[in-house]
Amino acid sequence: MKPGPKPKYSPEERRRRSVANSMKWNRKHQTIVNARICEVKKRNPEKYDAIDKAWREKNATSLKQYYKDYHQARESRFRQAVFAFYGGDNPRCVCCGEGHREFLTIDHTEGNGAEHRKEIGCGHFYSWLVKNNFPDGFRILCMNCNWSMGRRGYCPHQVKEV
Ligand SMILES: [Zn+2]
Ligand SMILES: [Zn+2]
Questions:
Q1: Is 72 inside any structural domain?
Q2: Strands (E) located in the chain
Q3: Which bound ligand lies closest to the C-alpha atom of 97?
Q4: How far is the CA of 48 from the CAs of 16, 51, 53, 55, 58, in angstroms?
Q5: 102: CA distance to ligand 2 center in Å?
Q6: Which ligand is nearest to the CA of 139?
Q7: 64, 84, 134, 162: least surrounded by Cβ within 10 Å?
């Protein structure tokens, strides 16, 4: 197919592009922009502090949501990397072979997972594993097997086989 005439952008698309362009410019000239902002703020610090504060207050809810989403997206990327490392292309529970991602979790083979999670802080487990270069001593278990091993010290799947 021959390239058509120059695409016509919808108003929304045009706005998006113009924002993207000015962001690009800002990034390229970050130092200049920062210096300029700094200078303006220095001239009247109280005024700009108040503006900043009002903006943060006005946008508190969406800011909170933004950080929450950001953190969740980040953790989910780390989660994928962790499962790919410990489970390959097709991560499964090492005990029963459960393969649904929703059921799978990472188990601390030493059995002190709860303590360990507390130590590194809630919600940072997957990023911790990535940052620590996927340490030994972790395996993939499904929630059922993990729960049973944690609570009872064994999994019924293993008992049946013996
Ligand atoms: Zn299992
Ligand atoms: Zn099991």
A1: yes
A2: 104-108, 138-142
A3: 1
A4: 27, 5, 8, 10, 15
A5: 16
A6: 1
A7: 162
Q: Record the tokens describing residue 25, joined without a space.
A: 């410019």
CA of 37 to the centre of ligand 1 (A): 56
**Separation CA 155–CA 93 (nearest Å):** 12
Where in the sequence is the domain holding 112, given as residue range(s)? 42-161
pTM for this model (two decimals): 0.61
Domains identified in the chain, total number: 1
CA of 161 to the centre of ligand 2 (A): 11
Task: Give SS3 for 105.
Answer: strand
pLDDT in tens, the chain (162 residues): 566 667 788 888 888 888 888 888 888 888 888 888 888 888 888 988 999 899 999 999 999 999 999 988 998 999 999 999 999 999 999 999 999 999 999 998 876 767 777 777 777 889 999 999 999 999 999 999 999 998 888 999 988 554
Residues in Cβ contact with 130 at an 8 Å cutoff, skipping those fewer than 6 apart: 78, 81, 82
- Two tokens at 112? 């002190």
